[in-house]
Amino acid sequence: MYDPTVARLTYRALLGRRRALILCALPVLLIVISAAVRSFAGADDQVASDLLGGFALATMVPIIGVIAGTGAIGPEIDDGSVVYLLAKPVKRPTIIFTKLIVAIAVTMAFSALPTFIAGMILNGNGQQVAVAYTVAALVASIAYAALFLLLGTVTRHAVVFGLVYALVWEALFGSLVSGARTLSVQQWALAVGHKVTGGDLVTSDVGLPTATVLLVVVTVLATWYAGQRLRSLTLAGEE
Amino acid sequence: MAVEQSLTPRGEQTRIHDIGYRHYDGPRLGRAYARRSLYSQSLRGSYGLGRSVKSKVLPMLLFVVMCVPALIMVAVAVATKAKALPVDYTRYAVIMQAVIGLYVASQGPQSVSRDLRFKTVPLYFSRPIETVDYVRAKYAALASALFVLTAAPLIVLYVGALLAKLDFADQTKGFGQGLVSVALLSLLFAGIGLVISSVTPRRGFGIAAVIAALTISYGAVSTVQAIAFEQSSSSAVPWLGLFSPITLIDGVQTAFLGATSAFPGGEGPSSGQGVVYLVVVLGLIAGSYGLLMRRYRKVGL
């Protein structure tokens, strides 16, 4: 199910050249802000929770997920070079699975790790805030990567639709309509983070069983359907 | 043939062969015409006009999403005979900033990245246009497209307010202030979007980079502002707003256009700080124009 060559090529496409710059810029910004906040406000659990929840988990993780998830397959389909990959005797679900693993690894490395470091800088893991948000970021990375990888196989405007989901649905509707929060990867991840630490600072609107089931279902379904999409992929010309 | 050749003047004998194409001897429309065409084509392209149906979907969808809340507000105001609109003219763009950001991110790269990727830029410059014409046409086109996007809901609100028989002078003043603010916003966002997307020939990457620049900076600024406000150091709040495009616009309109700030606690900048905001906004617009000129000085040639 895992093809090392496909993985190596995907890593190179994701981390090559300028793409790595934007992936690095966000974590660096988070850590700089955390250091600045710590030096201004001192260690405060509520502040740490606000910053990690509002900036790291709500903004940074989805955007890294969009870049890594769609970037793992989107550009190849876009410029047509995916035919050379599809022409090889590798099963298409295997290709998707390998690309998913790579996308998850990249998203985790660039979102969960900085979240943990930022949490340690902010309040030295007081009340388990840093660990809770790191776990949430890890869980969210998996679901986001699977979701956005699927988008990459479905539409040429994957980045836009991914961002629409991440920014408009989760941030805008999520803050206005409470029902939208049930269908939000961010809240599912928060539910897991809440359970892991059991603290009061990290809360979610979704119960743990619902969240876990939905996370697993979304990830598996998205991966399966992406494999199906790739099996019947037709290369459209430039619009 | 031989006779003809001997009759031609000496200078033209160097020609290898004349295969008899007719020369163009109609009117030459010149540089201004080419620039106008590039402008109108880019502007139409920003809404998918003259392009495939697929590429019409997203800009039109965003345009509709932008206008629908205004329609709903107007309908509510008319039905309930409200004394004022639920939202100020100047506040509307700040509320809908996610949609505006998505529009810039999707149409900025569409406007310039594809020219780079398919190497059509040299073809533009084989026409009688110069770098400055290309940059101005593209910049003006994206700024106009953004202005259409942001001004349309304001017009809806204004017409609705007049239909609801709200005070004419008051509404007209607010409408004018709103138009100035969205004009500034259009110029600023178009500049930032074009500078970022002119660096990369890949459309998807351009989209991500533009949205990251707009959203991440806003996310970072608003988070830090909220923390500064909670830590009761409210004096720092207006200065922090200098670091993201939408808070810059918010600050300028709070200081000069009678808007209420969306900053935490409504801690908008004073008039003195407002001058700094205005200088930064104008500097960013001029800076992005300068960067674009630099970028296209010798692109693809």
From TrEMBL, chain A:
<feature type="transmembrane region" description="Helical">
    <location>
        <begin position="20"/>
        <end position="41"/>
    </location>
</feature>
<feature type="transmembrane region" description="Helical">
    <location>
        <begin position="53"/>
        <end position="74"/>
    </location>
</feature>
<protein>
    <submittedName>
        <fullName>ABC transporter permease</fullName>
    </submittedName>
</protein>
<dbReference type="Pfam" id="PF12679">
    <property type="entry name" value="ABC2_membrane_2"/>
</dbReference>
<feature type="transmembrane region" description="Helical">
    <location>
        <begin position="158"/>
        <end position="180"/>
    </location>
</feature>
<keyword id="KW-1133">Transmembrane helix</keyword>
<dbReference type="GO" id="GO:0005886">
    <property type="term" value="C:plasma membrane"/>
</dbReference>
<feature type="transmembrane region" description="Helical">
    <location>
        <begin position="206"/>
        <end position="226"/>
    </location>
</feature>
<feature type="transmembrane region" description="Helical">
    <location>
        <begin position="130"/>
        <end position="151"/>
    </location>
</feature>
<feature type="transmembrane region" description="Helical">
    <location>
        <begin position="95"/>
        <end position="118"/>
    </location>
</feature>
<keyword id="KW-0812">Transmembrane</keyword>
<dbReference type="GO" id="GO:0140359">
    <property type="term" value="F:ABC-type transporter activity"/>
</dbReference>
<keyword id="KW-0472">Membrane</keyword>
From TrEMBL, chain B:
<protein>
    <submittedName>
        <fullName>Membrane protein</fullName>
    </submittedName>
</protein>
<feature type="transmembrane region" description="Helical">
    <location>
        <begin position="275"/>
        <end position="292"/>
    </location>
</feature>
<keyword id="KW-1133">Transmembrane helix</keyword>
<dbReference type="Pfam" id="PF12679">
    <property type="entry name" value="ABC2_membrane_2"/>
</dbReference>
<feature type="transmembrane region" description="Helical">
    <location>
        <begin position="57"/>
        <end position="77"/>
    </location>
</feature>
<feature type="transmembrane region" description="Helical">
    <location>
        <begin position="139"/>
        <end position="163"/>
    </location>
</feature>
<feature type="transmembrane region" description="Helical">
    <location>
        <begin position="205"/>
        <end position="227"/>
    </location>
</feature>
<dbReference type="GO" id="GO:0140359">
    <property type="term" value="F:ABC-type transporter activity"/>
</dbReference>
<dbReference type="GO" id="GO:0005886">
    <property type="term" value="C:plasma membrane"/>
</dbReference>
<keyword id="KW-0472">Membrane</keyword>
<feature type="transmembrane region" description="Helical">
    <location>
        <begin position="89"/>
        <end position="106"/>
    </location>
</feature>
<feature type="transmembrane region" description="Helical">
    <location>
        <begin position="175"/>
        <end position="199"/>
    </location>
</feature>
<keyword id="KW-0812">Transmembrane</keyword>
